[in-house]
Each structure stands twice: as C-alpha cells, then as structure tokens.
Amino acid sequence: MRAFFLLSIAWAAEKGDAELKLPGFGELLVKSIVALVIVVGIILLFSWYIKGYLRRSRESDFIKILDKIYLDSRRFLCLVKVGEKFFLLGVGDGGVNLIAEMEKVTALEGEEIDVTPSFKRQLERFLGKR
Known about the structure:
alpha+beta
C-alpha cells in the first residue's frame, strides 16, 4: 500500500500538477479490503488443493482401513482389509501389533457381517461395554 502511495506521488509530481491529490480514506479502505479478499482466497485455494492432494496420496486399491475404535487417547484397535484377508491391529505408543488375522469377519452367532458400518458395534459386543 505504501508503494502505491509513493507511486501516486511520483506520478503526480511527474505530471507537474501544482496541487497534489492523495487517495482518500474510502479509496484506501476499498483497496485494502479487495487485497485482503484476494489473499484469503489464495490461502483457501491452496489449502483445498493440499487437502485433496493428501487425500489422494493416502488412498489405496489393496489396503483399506475399515474401522477403528479408540481404547483411550493414545491407543486404538484397527480393522484393516488387505486383499481378501482382515487384520485386527492394536496401535499404541509401542507401535503396531497384530492381534488377529481373519479370513472372514463373523458375528458371535456365526453369520457373516458387513464390516464397514458395524465393526464398532460388534467389537463392543465382544469386549463388553466399559
């Protein structure tokens, strides 16, 4: 903004105007608001692009995290599908531990379940509500 002000003074002095016209408060306010909107727009576009890039870099056709349930703030159980197998992993401060490897995920009654929406409910049934 200061550079624009100095340029307008130099331009007016170059023209040889006897009276120097400075931009008014309203004009400076409008220009500042327009500049702020442009900067915020650029920041939003950049963050949208980065978020999409990170999401694309985490996707995989062969490995899918189906569900996870937090045991406390630092440890959780995670159900992962790799190919046709399912793995129940324990994740915590000590790293990742394999708890179980399964061909199919079944409920207590023996019927096969859809693991995507209801793994959390099934795990709560296995472990009991705490």
